[in-house]
Input
Amino acid sequence: MHKKHYEQLQESVYAETLPNGLKVFLQPKPEMAKTYAIFSTNYGSVDQTFVPLDGKEKITVPEGIAHFLEHKLFEKEDRDVFQDFTKQGASANAFTSFTQTAYLFSATSHIEENVTTLLDFVQDPYFSDKSVEKEKGIIAQEIRMYDDQPDWRSFFGTIQSLFQSHPVRIDIAGTVDSIQEITKEDLYTCYNTFYHPSNMTLFVTGNIDEEKMIELIRANQDSKKFAPPAKIERFFPEEPETVAEKKKQVRMPVSVSKCMVGIKENTDYASPEAYLKQELLTDMVLDYYFSKSGVYYEELYKNDLIDDSFGFETSLEKNFGFSIIGGNTKEPDRFADTVKGMLQRMKDHTVSEAEMERIKKKTIGQMLRAMNSLEFVSNRFIQYHLAGVDLFDIVPAIEKLTAADANGFLKEWFNEDRLAVCQILPQEA
Amino acid sequence: MKIAGEKIITGKGATLHLIPTKKYKTISIAVKLQAPLERETITARALLPYVLQQGTANLSDARALRLKLDDLYGAILSISGTKKGEKHIITLRLDVANENYLSDRTPLFEKAVDLLREILFEPKAENNAFTESIVTREIQTLKQKMVALKDDKMSYANMRLIDEMCKDEPYSLHVHGYEEELKDMDGGKLYGFYEKMLKQDKMDIYILGDVESELAEKAVQPFLERDIAPLEERTASVHPASDEVQEVIETQDVQQAKLHLGYRTNIRYDDSDYAALQVFNGLFGGFPSSKLFRNVREKHSLAYYAASRFESHKGLLFVFSGIDPKDYQKAKEIIDAQLASMQAGEFEGSEVEEVKDLIVSQILETIDNPAGHIETLYQQVMGNKNVTIEQMLDSIQQVTTEDVLQVAKKVQLDTVYLLTNKEAEKNA
Output
């Protein structure tokens, strides 16, 4: 087990890759009551087309299958795994994102039993025709719930207007129609391909003893047989530079309109360091202009174009990335034009050294605050690790950034061809 | 792991609660202002949190205030109004980095407290009135909030259930206030409500993090020395459930129907059976192992979510589920059957023990989060009951199967609220 200590943050992380390929990270936090463990596979909704394990030809699976599989792993032939965690005082959950499927629990007692349950249930699938059919009703209700949420519709609508062919444009849960096609055989195909230990990461943090914990994990994994690790071949269509739809309008029964301005981000990073730098600068620049201390926020607010639902976010992954700016607005068209104009103007702006210092201070302070959360640390650690970045090296990376970096970024960042607008509008009378 | 103790210092104008802990890389400061929930003040109290963030005597506008926060290593300020039972609470929170984790070790805590003092006691105002243009703009924001609430169907259904269930009780007052009250609101009137708040509200201050208690006490002196004329304490009104269950069905163009049910428990935070209520809720609908989730979702595949939650200061319990509009009767029957089953004592001693462990764990996990810890302690101020976290956990462990059964028998369905679509209503 390899220990890495981060002096300034006073944190230590222990790392080990097991013989079967599973990557394990342990972060003891003895001052916490809680332990949080997350077992994550590098497999999400975008992994639609791939060569299955033991197969020769690439296949494309039904939309929403990664999420469907996540639901079904909890059900075993004789029981529901949620109840196993409950008996051991833990609360369990799972989530599926574009690029990850993760299973997790938090608990303050029976930690070793719960870690064992986590590893065992994820590594022992049981799918039957009957249980697959039963789940369709539950997931259909989950999809319908999201269909009624204007926030989700505007987020996803923006992504769909940005991307022409990349599967990020497919709803994570699929559609009520697409999930009807899913069979137990499909689930096994996806499971066998993507749930090999060499494609997975386990992060345990909280009230643990790292030595005992690694012993337990090693013994658990040694007792199981896996096929030799194989490289997974995944296919992603070429995504053109231009957006799918410059302006998309969705009508639904809302009282307040919404408008989102989306930017399809460039993703040809030369190295993990370049990736991190691009991610940090995108976040910091958006914050500089559009957070409550930003000059553009003030302008939008004074012109009555936004309310306190206004926000922005950036998501950068290996082969896709986007930023979204927006929220509720009374004038969706004027909002879109104003933000577009602001993004144009940013090219000619420069950030001073003093301003850059303030942005850096803010970013660092907020990073410290986020690190209070075991969930944040574990989830982000895994995400960054897959991109070749160490979460705990981010503070020093921020400290290194200069005004020249920000200004260089501003010159290059915005490109009209990569911009799309999505509006949620009330239904026409 | 040791649970951080709470040190309480009572001043003339406020009570200071210190929770020294090295768990976090930040220091959290929260100021709580408590007043009765009243129709006459609710709208102004909903508006104040917005106006107070628009600048201070020394910081000319909202942006100047935000830049000041950025300089304090991105300190996070939030001001919000909430209702708890029949009280209204305005909370000012400021989270600031602990400089021990920064390469620049300039102390931040005292500056943060001073900024919070300035925001609360020296807002941007002239001649006993807030700036008119600010008030006008913030009224817009609040109005939009009231309207936008309707677009979040879960919150909307929840609000409508309480509207109908607690019609004649203060608890049904809307936390965002009322549009008609905003018509003749102006800077002077709002300032009057602000002064009333400063003079009459019960104030509690929480400081949680790695701070010396002398330093903390000294920093909050201006709060502790506030001039006050507090109001008499008033307890929440008691309403027995009506004999007949009322059913309210509304239609909108929705994909998924929201079925929300309201029950009376009349059990409050300081009641001796409060711990048993928590265990009851855990068995009934609080966890994925509960009866509601197991039956409504897992057994009958009717919903993605089906859960219950209790209200601690008024004595209410709510069930929520999102269902296919055509399944209303079936879902309702299954939910009713789960309560009947609880009331018939159909749960095992082993299940009670499991749920107790889950609740203990939930409380311990909540206090692993700065805001969660503060809210857990503030519940005690709200409930007029002072216990340590250890005592709280102990009271859960003491609950017996019989205690849970007695609580189950007190739970009475009052109102059923359904938000559905037009096609379904025709067939209902």
Summary: The domain at 2-222 of chain A is CATH 3.30.830.10 (Cytochrome Bc1 Complex; Chain A, domain 1). Chain A has a mean pLDDT of 95. Chain A has two domains: 2-222, 247-425. The CA atoms of residues 237 and 311 of chain A lie 30 Å apart.
